[in-house]
């Protein structure tokens, strides 16, 4: 779908004022203003992101009560099970609490449900089995906040239940012995954007304070917590929560921790991915290199191996696990390409993405663990909410669906409105899942699309690119682009600066690269200055770009590439338009 480019307006006087008061380069001041940061104090707080600005764990709703419960369980010798989720956030949070309780001498193990066979969150069979195996306490990670029936079952089994979660809360809270959640009703915690691993980190910190009998923890526990910040950063980036406030602090310092003091398994995977050396790690390294390999384990039903990678202290086992997860990710990519081609064909041949407010696509043979990634790609391509449903091969089991939003449609509200056609559903406003009987798919599609049409305005159905500034290629020096890194870590709510340039020509024909030729390699030239460009997921542009008769305008994110000791500026191309069309559509 064509995108509307909106270039952020600038007030040069305000840029100069912030440049002087905050003592930052003009380009940094300009970008801070784009992010709503207007004064020197806020600018320094944002740029410094000091570890000391993390709030005391006692302030996190429910953390104190949960820490007290867990400490009593440890002292009583109860068997504790960390019950995690199967995504990177759940794996990393599970690893944090498992390593913490091990350090505190607890009788602890972890359990991660099978994504396809058990589904998300607490389930009756798993709780029954864990109780029969002698568990006395269950501590959830990244799940449990909506598990009222399962919590009642746990109570009936005689299990203590501590819930740690960050997902959208239902009206009826589970009857747990303690609930740790940043948005717990009546708490007023000032930052509700923590992910599951962030919540787990705060609880681990509170446990260390109790074990140390002081706010300032012992040196060994401080060393553990600094390493745990790195694990929290993995979950924070992978779960695409806003990289502001406490999340920004966790990721800023977690990246340093992952470089300087990684757990054994993380070190093995970084080595395999060739992310060693003097260059600092970035949030993009987590998002596009590390996290997909852990996620592959969860998506293909082997999430326990991801947790093991983050908890093992054996270098030999870590190397073996890292290699296996790397291979698993290649299998995941192959499945993803196959499903994407089939879903894209269904969307364009059986439906009308330009006219329809949403897309609900279903097919037998799609792998339930991969459809979420494909839904995300299609939602971005068509700028429509997309639901992909993997139907059972023989129709004897419910279909499993995964959805990604676009245009601001809140998926949890949409699924609630359509719940008469669903067996179950859950998730966030932007990403959600469901289970559905095959014979209800058509009725669900109709009602979901009607809800989307009523909730989304015409403007919401038009994809926008919010561009920070238009700059000439000649201004993109290594030093200038390096200045942009002062705003890192980049991610949700703090994206890498998006710039644009016009009158750009191609120095050579565009070249599809990567698995399935999904990406596009470019050589971009403007007034004699040229840069290498890469368009991730832009392989479909190749023929269209090559046929453009004149110059183009490109929207891109510049970055400094470190390769064999050399530093060079490269461009991640996000969109392009013929130069005349771009000038007409920019606003």
Topology:
Layout: E1 4-7, H1 12-22, H2 26-34, H3 40-48, H4 63-75, E2 79-83, H5 88-103, E3 107-111, H6 124-132, E4 135-140, H7 148-156, E5 160-164, E6 178-180, H8 196-212, H9 219-238, H10 245-260, H11 264-272, H12 283-299, H13 303-311, H14 315-350, E7 359-364, H15 371-382, E8 386-391, E9 399-404, H16 411-417, E10 424-427, E11 431-436, H17 441-455, E12 464-467, E13 469-470, H18 478-484, E14 499-506, E15 511-513, E16 519-526, E17 529-535, H19 542-546, E18 552-563, E19 566-578, H20 579-585
Parallel strand pairs: 1-12, 2-3, 2-4, 4-5, 5-6, 7-8, 13-14, 17-19
Antiparallel strand pairs: 8-9, 9-11, 10-11, 14-16, 14-18, 15-16, 16-17, 18-19
Helix pairs in contact: 1-2, 4-8, 5-8, 5-9, 5-13, 8-9, 9-10, 9-12, 11-14, 12-13, 12-14, 13-14, 14-15
- The residue fraction in helices comes out at 40-55%
Ranges where pLDDT stays below 50 over 5 or more residues in a row are 583-587
Specify the overall morphology.
globular
Alpha carbon gyration radius: 24 Å
Q: What is the total domain count?
A: 3
Mean pLDDT: 94
Strand-pairing-aware structural class: alpha/beta
Q: Helical region count?
A: 20
Number of strands: 19
Proper CATH architecture of the largest domain: Alpha-Beta Complex
- Biggest beta sheet summary: 5 strands, parallel
Distance between the termini: 17 Å
Strand content: 15-25%
Main-sheet strand order equals 3-2-4-5-6
CATH class of the largest domain: Alpha Beta
From the 3D structure, determine the CATH topology of the largest domain: inorganic pyrophosphatase (n-terminal core)
